[in-house]
Amino acid sequence: MQDKDVKLSSGDKIALISNLSTMLSAGIPILDAVNNLLEDSKSGVKKILETLRDDLTQGHQVNFTLAKFTNAFDKVTVNVVKASEEAGTLDITLKDLKASLQKQNEFNDKVRSALIYPVFIVGVFVLVLLVQLVYVIPKIAMVFKNLRVPLPLPTKILIAVSDFMLKNTIIFLFVLAGIILFFIFLYTKKKGFILNIFYSLPGVSGLVKLIDLTRFSRSLYLLLNSGLPIVAALDLTSEVVVRVQTQKIINKSKEMILGGKTFSDGLRTAKGYIPTIMIKLVETGEKTGSLDKSLADISEYFDYQVSTTLKTLTALLEPIMLVVIGVMVGGMMISIIAPIYGLISQVSPH
Predict the structure, then answer these.
(1) DSSP category for residue 274
(2) For the chain, percent helix, then strand, then coil, each to nearest 5?
(3) What does the pLDDT average to over 82-98?
């Protein structure tokens, strides 16, 4: 397995950094700490520790090793470690990094949890639809055919789709696979364009902006706290956000700082996008020389805002999805039942 192919779960990454931090804080030399951790390590963690041991033996630093594992450690993590090694504060920075990763993990869990319900509901609906089309509709269609029952248009459509699926299963699967591959190809080639459309949707836009600002402020805090200059830190944080608009604001702020302005001046140019509270806290942090602490407070504030927004969206989405799915399933059932009632009304005595 090549270094770049090694991946770590969030839990493994946090555990690795936490263990290194604990041992270094206890005064154990880094090489001894790595050797101790190797005894109980497995899989990807073991590969990283083995490489780290070899690199340390050759005189390299920890960041040199982490930079090799691009799928396990992002540029922010690598540069935070590099800056702390240069400042001689690796043990302290690893503690901060662990705390930041834990918060990021909790943050991602919140977002993931909010998506589970709608995905589950859609999955159940698709399953019900397939069962209806493959098993239920063919049997009922045969009954209708034998009894020569006049069918409404929705019922005819359901029977036609079911009939096509059963008679042309291979073609259907090829068409389905083709559609999926087309969207995958489209997403690969036009990822930025598609994501920008998605991020602009009502409800999604505001949430994605908050998520962006949370990641941005947390990453910037971590980088500044490790001793990295603000221009270099901004350069790295532009890679952790997803919205193009957020990236442009970060780059604009960097340009203004290079031109002699302050970070808050750069944020103020996007006042309609950047919340006033963020601008004010950054400005205060710059004046008091505690910008990193201000950014930590900002990330906590946005984290809370994201949690609140997710709860609100989930609370709204659940009943809406239930109604939509209920109407669709109900429509299918009515399409099946309506001809039966029509038949009953024809044979019942007047």
Answers:
(1) S
(2) 80, 0, 20
(3) 85
Orientation angle between helical segments 204-225 and 230-237, nearest 10 degrees: 140
- pLDDT at residue 203, as a whole number: 67
Same fold? 3-73, 204-309:
yes
- CA-nearest of 14, 37, 25, 34 to 90 is 25
DSSP 122-136: HHHHHHHHHHIIIII
Beta carbons within 8 Å of 344's beta carbon, 6+ residues apart: none
Integer CA distances (angstroms), 281 to 264, 286, 292, 301, in order: 9, 9, 11, 11
**Encoding tokens for residue 161?**
């789709």
Structure tokens at 294: 């201000």
Read off the tokens for 72.
């396990």
C-alpha to C-alpha distance for 197 and 321, rounded to whole angstroms? 22
CATH architecture, domain defined by 204-309: Up-down Bundle (1.20)
Ranges of each domain in the chain: 3-73, 103-183+325-347, 204-309
Please report the pLDDT score of residue 241 as a whole number.
Answer: 84
Residue 342 has pLDDT above 80, yes or no: no
Long-range (24+ apart) CB contacts under 8 A made by 97-102 are 97/17, 97/21, 97/222, 98/14, 98/17, 98/18, 98/21, 100/218, 100/221, 100/222, 101/10, 101/13, 101/14, 101/17, 102/14
Q: What is the pLDDT of residues 162-203, one digit of tens each?
A: 888 888 878 878 888 888 888 888 767 766 666 667 667 676
Return the SS3 of 58. coil
d(CA 211, CA 213): 6
Helix, strand or coil, per DSSP, at residue 270 = coil
Rounded average pLDDT over 10-37: 89
Distance CA 56, CA 61 (A): 6
Q: In this structure, are residues 293 and 285 in contact, taking their beta carbons and an 8 Å threshold?
A: yes
For the chain, how big is the Rg over CA atoms in Å?
Answer: 28
Topology (CATH) of 3-73? Receptor-associated Protein (1.20.81)
Higher pLDDT pick, 1 / 21: 21
- Per residue, the 3-state secondary structure of 197-240, as one string, reads HHHCCCCHHHHHHHHHHHHHHHHHHHHHHCCCCHHHHHHHHCCC
Of all residues in the chain, what percent carry a pLDDT higher than 70? 93
